[in-house]
From TrEMBL:
Top-level division of the source organism's lineage: Eukaryota
The protein's name in its UniProt record: Enoyl reductase (ER) domain-containing protein
Single GO MF annotation: zinc ion binding
InterPro entries attached to this UniProt entry: ADH-like_C, ADH-like_N, ER, GroES-like_sf, NAD(P)-bd_dom_sf, Quin_OxRdtase/zeta-crystal_CS, Zn-ADH-like_protein
Organism lineage string: Eukaryota, Viridiplantae, Streptophyta, Embryophyta, Tracheophyta
Pfam families: ADH_N, ADH_zinc_N
Ranges where the Enoyl reductase (ER) domain occurs: 22-233
Length: 239
């Protein structure tokens, strides 16, 4: 099978030409003869990967700066979607041909990946597999933070920084599903218009206006006491 393999630590964005197996300079190579992974337990499932997303953690892992440091060589990649290709004799929740998505610590930058059946989520028929391939990390992070940790409820005010990014966007959508009043902060007209199209209650363009003043004005106009939950995927002093 084809797979992107990290053979040494380094910056994958500094590639000069190719990522072929003959390239000795690149930290990652495209292997076209990597072994197809086999089922390892009675309840394991092999997935033919249809889509996988690139996360910052993947980049850090190839650099060697992520907290989890797998031995070399390794196949990077975390969240993915695909079609069930094979199942172990003890699998009862899935069958060959099912559409699934999941999160892996390694291995999604390949044509096939093996996971346990209870690690996989069925993808509804109306959901595109490319979209599903980007769901687990971003939406999983925001769901844990907002639903489980913050226990966001209907009528509360949610302020999302970096709202047009993957994690920020997932927070906006989960906030709306929870019935919260959502305030989103982003930079630039295109991002602002996109967030407005999602039904965000108030969007702040941080490139043109003061975030603090804009948020205060909105809260005053709506007769709201303040922000109940602040969601900050930027992880730095921003405003």
């Amino acid at each position: 099978m084809e797979a992107l393999v990290c053979k040494k630590l380094g910056d994958p964005t500094a590639l000069k030409s190719s990522i072929s197996e003959a390239d000795n300079d690149s930290p990652i190579i495209l292997s076209k003869t990597h072994p197809i992974p086999q089922l390892t337990t009675r309840t394991s499932v092999r997935v033919r990967v249809k889509a996988t997303s690139l996360n910052y953690a993947n980049y850090l892992q190839i650099l060697g700066k992520y907290q989890e440091k797998p031995p070399l060589p390794f196949i990077p990649g975390s969240d993915y979607s695909g079609i069930v290709d094979a199942v172990g004799p003890g699998v009862s929740l899935l069958k060959v041909g099912d559409r699934v998505c999941s999160f892996a610590t390694l291995g999604s930058f390949a044509e096939f990946l093996v996971a346990e059946q209870d690690e996989l989520f069925k993808v509804p028929d109306g959901c595109d597999l490319v979209a599903a391939g980007a769901l687990p990390v971003a939406f999983g992070t925001s769901h844990v933070a907002l639903v489980h940790r913050a226990q966001l409820t209907s009528g509360q005010v949610l302020l999302v920084l970096g709202a047009a990014g993957g994690v920020g966007l997932s927070a906006v959508q989960i906030g709306k599903v929870c019935g919260a009043v959502v305030i989103a902060v982003a930079r630039g007209d295109e991002k602002v218009q996109f967030l407005k199209s999602l039904g965000v209650d108030h969007v702040v363009d941080s490139s043109k206006e003061s975030v603090i003043s804009s948020v205060k004005d909105f809260l005053k106009a709506r007769k709201l006491k303040g922000v109940d939950v602040l969601y900050d995927p930027c992880w730095r002093q921003t405003y």
